[in-house]
Write the C-alpha cells for this entry.
Amino acid sequence: MNFFTGTLLNPPKLRFNYSSASAQNFDARRGLKLYGPYDSAILGKDRVSVTIIFPSQHQQEKDVLIKGLMNGHHPFEGFQKLFRIPLYIVEVALLTENEREVQQKVRDLASRGDVDLALVIVSSQYESIYQTAKRELLGNGIPNQVVTVGTLQNREQIPWVLENIALSCYAKIGGTPWVVASEDNRRELVIGISRAQDRSKEFVVGFVTLFTQDGDFLLLHSSAPVLKWKEEEYVKGLTNLLVDAYAEYSRIKGRPDAIILHLCKRPGRFREVEAVQKAIQQLSIDVPYALVHLNDDSNLRLFDASHPSYVPQTGLQVDLSNREALLLLGGRRDDGRSSRGVPRVLHISMDKRSTMPIDQFPRLVRQIYNSARVNWRGFNARAVPVTLNYSYLIARLIVEIGANNWNQVISNGKLRDKAWFL
C-alpha cells in the first residue's frame, strides 16, 4: 500500500489598488468594494465608453442591462461604485437581426474610434449572430460582451449576472481588477498554452497569455496564422512565440528569472523542449525553464472521510512524487461548497527535461493554486488556473470566429493588452 503526504494550502491574499500595498483582502468582491480595482490610478481613462447593440423588439431587456450597470441592482451596486469609473453609454438598435445589419453597425462604430467596449444582446432564435458580432467587433479591435435575452429575463439571478458582466467588461477594456499579493521577489514569465477542436476535429493551439508571478495578466501574445497540432508548425510557432514573448516581457518588466510554461497536455517527446531550446539559443540567454503539465481531466479523486460530505477543503495538495502532485481547487470553503458532485482534481507534473531545479516544484504548485484566484470571467467562476483557462478560451474563440479572421484580430494590435477573450 502506498502512502502519500498531503498539505492544505492557505488561500492567497488578493491585492487591490496599485498604489497601496495594504489594500489586500481574501475576498475579491469585498476587496473591490473597499479599495477599488488594482489599476484604478493607472488605467488612463476618465470614463468607459460602451455601446449597446440590441434588437429593437427587446427594449425592455436593454433597459434592464443599462439601468443595472449604471445604477445597480441590489446587492450589486453598479459599475461605477465597484470599479471607480463611470460608464458612458451609446445605444444602437437593430431593426432586424441579420448579419448584414450587424456588420454595418459594427463598421459604423469602428469609424467613430472612441468605443471601449460593445455589449451585444442577442435573442435565442438568432444566436448565429453571436459569431458575426464577435468576428466583426474583434476584427475592428473592439472588445465585446454578448448577453442573451433569456439571461436578462431571469429576475432572481440578475444581480449576479450584472455583477459578472461588469467584472468581465472591466477586464476586457484592459483593466486589472485584482492580482495575487506577491509572496516573493522573483520575476517569472508564465505562459499558458491550450487547445480546442474545430469542426473538422483538428486541434487549434491557443497561444497564449502572459502573466507575472503574481497573476497579473500582462498581454495576449498570439502568433498568426493559427497553428494546427502538427510537429513542424507547432515547434516553429512556439519558438517564434517564445522569442517574441520574452522580448515583450523584458520590455515591460525586465529580464525574467525563469520561464514557466503551463501546458494542457503532457510535453511531447521533443516538441516543447526543442522549441524552448531554440528560443533560448536565438535570444542568447541562459534562463532556467519549467515545463508543467496541468491535467484538469484526471481520473483520480480526493475524499475527506472526516467530513459528512466527504469533500476535502479547497487547497488540498497531495504529493505523488517530488515532481508530481494532485491539487484540489473546487473543494469546500468555510465548510460549504457552491457546486455539487465529486470535485475534480488538477493533476500537476513537472517534466524531467525542465532545467529549473526540482526543489522549486512545490512553489510552482503554489503558484498554480494562486493563479486560480485571478479568474476575471466571473466572481464565482470555476476554479481553474488562468494560464490554462485563458489560453483555452483563446483557442475556442479562434474556432468560433474562424481561423481566416485571426490574422485581422491580431494584426491591428488594439487588443494585445486586453483580456478580450473572457
Remarks:
- Residues 77 and 374 are 22 Å apart (CA to CA).
- The two ends are 44 Å apart (CA to CA).
- The domain at 44-172 is CATH 3.40.50.2300 (Rossmann fold).
